[in-house]
Amino acid sequence: MKTSPEKRQEIKKTLQRDKRLIHDSLKGNAESFAELMSLYYNRVTAIGHRFFFNAADKEDFAQEVFLKVFKNLSSFRGESSFATWITKIALTTALNSIKRTKDIEFDTETMEVPSNIYTPEEQQIRQLTMEAVKEAINDLPKKYAICLELYFFHDLNHEEISIITGFPVNTIKSHIFRAKKILRQKLKDFYTG
Amino acid sequence: MNQYLALDKGERLPCKLTTHILNCPSCRKEIKTFAHAEKISSEPIKIPAQVDVEEVRKIVAQIDPQYKANKPYVSLGSWIFFGVFLLLAIFTFNILTIKSRVLIFTFYYSAAIALVAYTLSFFACNLDFFIKRLHMKTSQ
To answer: Which value does ipTM take for this structure?
Structure first.
């Protein structure tokens, strides 16, 4: 995959920042680990919202994930991005916790979003994206639902999703493509009325 | 448009597609809208959350007791010892000084420099401690 120069620059910056924070955390700097937590907290809680339905469970889940992250921080080799690594830990933790992977329902209502970050139009667009993803998921085996969520709501690319879920890149790509087509139609309808 | 939809996140647009987009306003508009929709969908996870460092320290200390050793803390003992030593040195030197104007001037001059250096280094070494104190007072 040929990445655009802007994206490459962004990845490089993120990687450097994360490497520095990990290095300092491993040296015992709690501030650096707190910064790392702060940067990835919403990513972890978004997975929590997907699998758990009460606040206490969500909180316990986030704490468990960050404990695992801290315990395994020294094993992070930087072969994938830190976002991929932490999402994989979060997903494995969630799946192990609930042990009912086949019964997971996609529930957009559980995804908490701060209301002040979007304009009314953006809120509608995000709603359309959720609907498109939900629609695409309905026609898929449930185990693939997470791929679409990771792509649209966690800003992960095909390869990163494949690392996290273990599904082949081409399978992921085709499911995402279908969801994108639905979203395209929804956006078209939205703007043409 | 399908060619665009098949692209991955952050993937560079193929030349052929770029040329088409430049010449086709409707595709250009559609791609812009689509890219915006994709961008805003993942925005919430990119917002840094408020994390309490003390809480993190407590959690981490539960699984790694060694971590406590790395906690930066103000070792007041050595500072107090050095401060008292400095004052005693000034006092003793003052008693023992011969009543010479040059010596008295040199003495007070060096004592002032030593005190300023001591105070500055104390603040510089424990800046983190003072910032936190200040932050706690303002947030109360």
So the answer is: 0.72
